[in-house]
Amino acid sequence: MPKEEEQRDICTAFFSKAGIPGVVGAIDCTHIPIHFHGQRKEPVYINRRGYSSINCQMVCDHDVRFRNVLARWAGSTHHARVFNNSRLKSSLDEGLYCGVLLGDHGYPLRRYLLMPVHNPSTPSELRYNRSHKKARTHIERAFGILKQRFSCLSFGLRTSAVRASSIIVACAVLHNLVINWDEQPVPHPRHSTHTGCFDTVLIGPQQVQNREGVVFRRSIIDNHF
User: Fold this and answer.
1) Total domain count for the chain?
2) Which of 32, 43, 106, 127 has the most CB atoms in a 10 Å sphere around its CB?
3) How confident is the model at residue 170, as a pLDDT?
4) Which residues have C-beta within 8 Å of that of residue 80, sequence separation ≥ 6?
5) Which PANTHER family does this one have (predicted)?
């Protein structure tokens, strides 16, 4: 995750683009296919679409740089579980980072993790959801650019799970270096290569929320939308 000074710059950029204050990144998961060449398929790696993958959680900023990468969970793992067992969540719980992340409905609503409003019923909630979606498109775009640059992440890695995890992280690091060195604007993906999280979305009474998260999101909606 970015340092404190960078966090302020990122918050300012996200606010100017989407109008949600305090955003330091967008979070999501993407599935990277893995082919166990000459090895027996492990059932735990088979995702809901029936192929083996690694479920990778990543956070990006407004410039589609990856700020946090976790690439070691098997494809059958729900992304809420990936997050709940991550070092990132522990750091957020401990208050080590300022600001909030934006996630989809599959994530738990927290003071530091905001989701869209399910079934928005007021104009302000609709505006908030539109802004949330606008900000979250950065992570979808980041995944698309990453897989466009490194086609092996789209078509699959023919190696062990441990080595595949290292390759994914290395590709994310190289992606960031290209952004740092290239003065040209980051291009939009030519076509969608993002194989996102297609796990069952938890909404309504099943969705994990806490009171602090609900109150904080409501305050943002009331004061900014």
Assistant:
1) 1
2) 32
3) 97
4) 106, 107, 108, 199, 202, 208
5) DDE TNP4 DOMAIN-CONTAINING PROTEIN-RELATED, PTHR22930
Pair of tokens at residue 56: 């990778």
Q: Which tokens go with 14?
A: 């996200």
Q: Which of 34-48, 75-89, 189-203 has the highest mean pLDDT?
A: 75-89
Q: Which range marks the domain in which residue 200 is found?
A: 4-224
CB-side exposure of 67: number of CA atoms within 13 Å?
24
What integer pLDDT is reported at residue 204 of this predicted model?
40
Give pLDDT tens digits for 200-222. 444 443 345 688 899 999 999 99
Q: What is the pLDDT of residue 201?
A: 46
Give, as one character, the DSSP assignment of residue 185.
P
* H or E segment and range at residue 67: strand 66-74
Q: What separation, in Å, do the N-terminal and C-terminal C-alpha atoms of the chain show?
A: 28
CB 66, CB 58: distance < 8 Å: yes
Distance from chain centroid for Cα 131: 16
| Helix, strand, coil in percent for the chain, rounding step 5 | 45, 20, 35
Ranges of H-type helices in the chain: 4-18, 79-84, 87-93, 123-149, 152-155, 161-181, 211-224
Is there a contact between 77 and 53 (Cβ–Cβ < 8 Å)? no
Name the residue with tokens 């900000």. Answer: 135
